[in-house]
């Protein structure tokens, strides 16, 4: 039998399960007593911490049993002997749990899961970086964000036995005096460096190592950035019909996006995207469009293994820009090899002259059922503890109430204005668009005749043009 969550160190009133309720985030130090119904996916730490001031715990993502009898994603934030772990759930409420009440957060195809917002259940058919594709017993498949993931107790006991936490994974948390094995004087070699991480959830080797890598990066002064929408100051606008909660469109101009902070001595001076392999995930594609170097995770692991930790020459670790599908050729990135040496690189990040701005000066309409950036009001004003569960002198997480997607990729490709709609008929008929980019691959049969001066194309075409660095023939 799975042991229940403990109340060591803090107590909470008994709660009823509220799986269909959206719960706003709370500041961790208030120890919110609400059911964790809102979720953020994977590793969300964005704190830069000096190892001389704090002793950060290694980042460990878990699925943990809550007092309502359901299991939710969270992070281990603290430890009390002999066997009590503070779980910081993804809505920043917190509970104490024993080892038997936690599992490694490794969702697999075939797992039975529930959407805590809609109460819909089904079987996982595909595991993506930011969501799961779930097949219900009846009806079409649906996407499930990790922030709404919850799993009944009986399903965990039946399917998650091989994901129990091992002594090796918990060793660094149990020993609170433990520091990463870094050479003397290593602290700070990544100071002023912002890191955005995107990885394949099926890359087991990287996922096993990343806990220690994250801790070591923070020890050495790096700032982990959750999402491009947190690194950029974005002020797009939503258009809603009266009485309809869902917006029918979202619009942003190039002037409404810029680097999120003024550069000074204590700010981020350069930013990189780290990935385990070349990919086509939004974080990676936005970096390509902005001309921000995408590096192999080996850059970080090799740098940390130096006799005296120091950043290795990053240009040796550049990943391919992508694959030219027709010829199966790996293409190189278009980046400035002196990236990050002057403040203007970040201040003028939307106008990087070394990136191919294929939509420069163009107005682009993006049409797709998930192209309107989802609003997460609870992301705004979230706590300053990050995923590691301790006070941080610098925090930039959850700055924006949206996450990256196709609209931001198109904007990063130089468009002067981007409008996103779920359905073509929701677009302003009086407004001129130079390009209309469709998610639906069958767009030709549904919208065969564009207006004069407007080109219709598929998202696959826009993506491949970005990778090739030139406007390809429309397909």
From TrEMBL:
<dbReference type="GO" id="GO:0005634">
    <property type="term" value="C:nucleus"/>
</dbReference>
<dbReference type="GO" id="GO:0045944">
    <property type="term" value="P:positive regulation of transcription by RNA polymerase II"/>
</dbReference>
<dbReference type="InterPro" id="IPR036420">
    <property type="entry name" value="BRCT_dom_sf"/>
</dbReference>
<keyword id="KW-0539">Nucleus</keyword>
<feature type="compositionally biased region" description="Polar residues">
    <location>
        <begin position="33"/>
        <end position="47"/>
    </location>
</feature>
<protein>
    <recommendedName>
        <fullName>BRCT domain-containing protein</fullName>
    </recommendedName>
</protein>
<dbReference type="GO" id="GO:0000077">
    <property type="term" value="P:DNA damage checkpoint signaling"/>
</dbReference>
<dbReference type="InterPro" id="IPR047252">
    <property type="entry name" value="TP53BP1-like"/>
</dbReference>
<keyword id="KW-0227">DNA damage</keyword>
<feature type="compositionally biased region" description="Low complexity">
    <location>
        <begin position="1"/>
        <end position="10"/>
    </location>
</feature>
<feature type="region of interest" description="Disordered">
    <location>
        <begin position="1"/>
        <end position="47"/>
    </location>
</feature>
<dbReference type="GO" id="GO:0042393">
    <property type="term" value="F:histone binding"/>
</dbReference>
<dbReference type="InterPro" id="IPR047249">
    <property type="entry name" value="BRCT_p53bp1-like_rpt1"/>
</dbReference>
């Amino acid at each position: 039998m799975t042991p229940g969550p403990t109340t060591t160190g803090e107590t909470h009133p008994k709660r009823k399960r509220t799986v269909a309720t959206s719960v706003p985030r709370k500041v961790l130090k208030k120890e919110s007593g609400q059911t964790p119904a809102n979720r953020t996916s994977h590793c969300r730490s964005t704190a830069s911490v000096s190892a001389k001031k704090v002793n950060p715990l290694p980042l460990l993502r878990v699925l943990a049993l809550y007092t309502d009898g359901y299991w939710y994603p969270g992070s281990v934030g603290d430890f009390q002997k002999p066997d009590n772990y503070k779980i910081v759930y993804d809505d920043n409420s917190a509970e104490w749990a024993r080892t038997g009440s936690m599992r490694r957060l490794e969702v697999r195809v075939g797992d039975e899961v529930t959407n805590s917002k809609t109460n819909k259940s089904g079987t996982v058919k595909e595991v993506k970086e930011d969501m799961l594709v779930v097949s219900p017993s009846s009806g079409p498949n649906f996407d499930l964000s990790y922030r709404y993931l919850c799993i009944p107790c009986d399903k965990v006991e039946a399917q998650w036995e091989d994901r129990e936490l091992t002594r090796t994974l918990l060793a660094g948390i149990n020993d609170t005096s433990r520091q990463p094995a870094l050479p003397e004087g290593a602290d700070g070699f990544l100071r002023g460096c912002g890191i955005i991480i995107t990885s394949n959830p099926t890359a087991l080797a990287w996922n096993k190592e990343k806990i220690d890598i994250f801790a070591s990066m923070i020890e050495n002064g790096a700032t982990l950035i959750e999402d491009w929408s947190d690194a950029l100051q974005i002020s797009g606008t939503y258009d809603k019909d009266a009485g309809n909660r869902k917006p029918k469109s979202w619009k942003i101009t190039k002037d409404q996006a810029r680097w999120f902070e003024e550069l000074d001595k204590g700010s981020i001076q350069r930013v990189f995207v780290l990935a385990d392999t070349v990919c086509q995930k939004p974080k990676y594609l936005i970096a390509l469009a902005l001309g921000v170097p995408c590096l192999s995770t080996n850059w970080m692991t090799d740098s940390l293994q130096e006799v005296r930790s120091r950043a290795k020459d990053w240009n040796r670790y550049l990943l391919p820009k992508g694959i030219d599908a027709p010829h199966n050729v790996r293409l190189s990135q278009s980046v400035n090899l002196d990236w990050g040496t002057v403040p203007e690189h970040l201040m003028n990040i939307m106008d990087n002259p070394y990136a191919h701005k294929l939509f420069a000066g163009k107005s682009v309409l993006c049409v797709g059922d998930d192209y309107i950036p989802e609003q997460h009001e609870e992301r705004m004003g979230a706590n300053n503890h990050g995923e590691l569960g301790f006070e941080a002198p610098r925090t930039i997480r959850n700055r924006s109430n949206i996450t990256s997607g196709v609209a931001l990729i198109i904007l990063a490709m130089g468009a002067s204005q981007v409008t996103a709609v779920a359905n073509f008929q929701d677009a302003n008929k009086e407004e001129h668009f130079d390009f209309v980019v469709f998610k639906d691959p069958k767009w030709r049969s549904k919208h065969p005749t564009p207006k004069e001066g407007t080109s219709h194309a598929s998202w696959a075409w826009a993506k491949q043009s970005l990778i090739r660095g030139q406007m390809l023939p429309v397909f």
